[in-house]
């Protein structure tokens, strides 16, 4: 009887971990989003930033990041379209590169500190970000 119970618990843990978001931002912890043109991999362009602070705008970015899907394999990608800085209420920041080019079916994000991993955005998040930023 212990074996089936253990298997069920392990399966539940695998499902929970598998469904976790890659970044885990909470909308209420984000005070603003700053978006600028992409400049170079591994750094955020801090000039000419557009600032987004409304609840709807923050929710859009947080949802896009938290529903992104990690892609396997090596990364060989052209220059990005945008840099994104997530500003949290505790004063910390997190940065991402964003691709929304028309030829892409889904948007792509990359954490600024991990330029070897990309994440694809959902079709809905891609369209909403295109409507906001392009």
Topology, please?
Elements lengths: L1 H18 L10 E8 L12 E3 L2 H12 L2 E2 L11 E7 L4 E7 L8 E4 L7 E2 L2 H11 L1
Antiparallel strand pairs: 1-2, 1-4, 3-7, 4-5, 5-6, 6-7
Helix pairs in contact: 2-3
3D architecture notes:
31% of the residues lie in helices and 25% in strands. It contains 3 helices and 7 strands. A 7-stranded antiparallel sheet has the order 2-1-4-5-6-7-3, with helices on one face. A hairpin with an 8-residue loop joins strand 5 (93-99) and strand 6. Helix 2 packs across helix 3 (123-133). It is globular and about 35 Å long. It starts with a helix and ends with a helix. The model is unreliable at 13-20 (pLDDT under 50).
Largest sheet: 7 strands, antiparallel
Q: Could you give the distance between the termini? A: 58 Å
The order of strands across the largest sheet is 2-1-4-5-6-7-3
Mean pLDDT across all amino acids: 85
Radius of gyration: 17 Å
The number of distinct β-strands equals 7
> Topology as H/E string?
HEEHEEEEEH
Which ranges are low-confidence, i.e. pLDDT below 50, for 5 or more consecutive residues?
A: 13-20
Strand content: 15-25%
| Helix content estimate | 25-40%
- Tell the overall outline: globular
Number of helices: 3
Structural class: alpha+beta
